[in-house]
Give the backbone structure.
Amino acid sequence: MPELVGDVSADVLVVGGGYTGMWAAWHLKQLDPEARVVLLESEVCGHGPSGRNGGFCNVMWFSLPNMRQRWGDAGGLAVARASREAIAGIESFCREQEVDAWFRRGGYLQVSTAPAHDGIWNEASAVCRELGEGDAVQPLSPSGVAERCASPAFRAGAFYPDAATVQPARLALGLRARLREVGVHIYERSPVRRLVADCSFVPPIGGKSLQHRTGGGVTGHTEGGAVRAGAAVLAIGGAAKAPGGPLRSALTVTSSHIVLTEPVPDLLEEIGWTGGECITDSRTLIDYFRTTPDGRIAFGWGGGRIEMGARLGGRAELAPDVVAATADRLREYFPGLAGRRLTHAWGGPVDASPTHLPIIVPLPAGNAFAAAGYTGNGVGPSYMVGRTLASLALDRRDEPSRLPFVDPSPRHVPPEPFHWLGGETIRRALVSKENAELSGRRPNPVTALLTKIPRLIGFHIGR
Ligand SMILES: Cc1cc2nc3c(=O)[nH]c(=O)nc-3n(C[C@H](O)[C@H](O)[C@H](O)COP(=O)(O)OP(=O)(O)OC[C@H]3O[C@@H](n4cnc5c(N)ncnc54)[C@H](O)[C@@H]3O)c2cc1C
């Protein structure tokens, strides 16, 4: 797709060609086919985590206790159900638009790998039952887990039948192609340097205007041109945390790495993992696994280093030591992989909000909204967040626009370097505590205390 050269106008400017920006553009055209939508992407659409994630397409049932606590029964349930509709929406999109993203509804299996993690799903299961969604989380005995996938490391678990998997790059590139067909103007290699309110539209209203919609337009400037639009959606993932970024005080950016085995269909048969389930353990810094249609195992770890601001351009930050450790752990889960090759490894930034839930924040720059903060769980929810962004940009006062993750005053993270120092200290403490739990040792009391700090100061770690 071309770079932006010169000045153009649009009804809505979308900045960022990951899933969030692309779904927002898709929903904009579904809601208003006549709307002129321009999307600016700094590299190629899907180049960021959206094109190279683990492919888990999850419903947010495991976050329901957290969401209920923050938004009440109705708010929490509304978001959980919207995230379920998102999976159905992605499924229909792939079918109707003939995008072969390897969408497979195999469900999600959460397993315990240490006595300290047994029954960690009970709270989500109980809350789902209480709120009328009793089938969403189904506890399994160790033998129930082994029937779905046998590993010497797995204990009991829970099954979430609504979940699916996708091939992330196929979904991103398919979406990019369909956007073009429905008339979205996509410019790539066109990073937006500035987003400014355009006061020649309706002027801001009084002192309240900075954190609320002003009715004004907004202009996005790149090196080669500018897009003047009635509204803008900023969906730049972890880059929003970079110095000067719009969500620098509302996000933490960590990293995650994945390794992929050669095809091992014989092993998958042997361990009974043929149902397409995506699997995680139950630690805070999770291990995650899924299979591919050609019989490989993709395995990732969600506990990579906290990224400093300067490295947040959405690029792969492949840390060889973390990749090697990830590969070693995979073989502990499935000893039958001994002697089998790993063919690929990749990684990328993970944007986390203090609540570990996605956020949409109105920006000072006129009619502009920024979204991020999925905390490693954006593949399914980005469809839902994109739908809400489309409503906000078109000023539709509908149900998606009222979902409670639209938050004019999100929680803040501490300024740098305290944020990085504190975050890294707590991440290392979590790794140490959970490693002790896995090997049946009591965690060091100081380390265990450190892992409680985030909760004490109102930050949510985990789901
Ligand atoms: C290794 C890994 C594994 C993961 N596994 C899973 C998983 O299994 N399931 C799950 O649900 N989630 C997973 N995630 C998280 C998931 O990938 C993200 O939550 C999701 O892709 C976020 O999409 P996004 O569109 O908000 O952001 P991104 O995908 O980061 O897209 C942002 C886009 O904005 C562009 N951009 C940045 N700055 C600018 C600028 N100034 N101007 C224009 N464009 C700009 C970037 O190039 C990028 O294309 C994983 C993430 C990683 C890194």
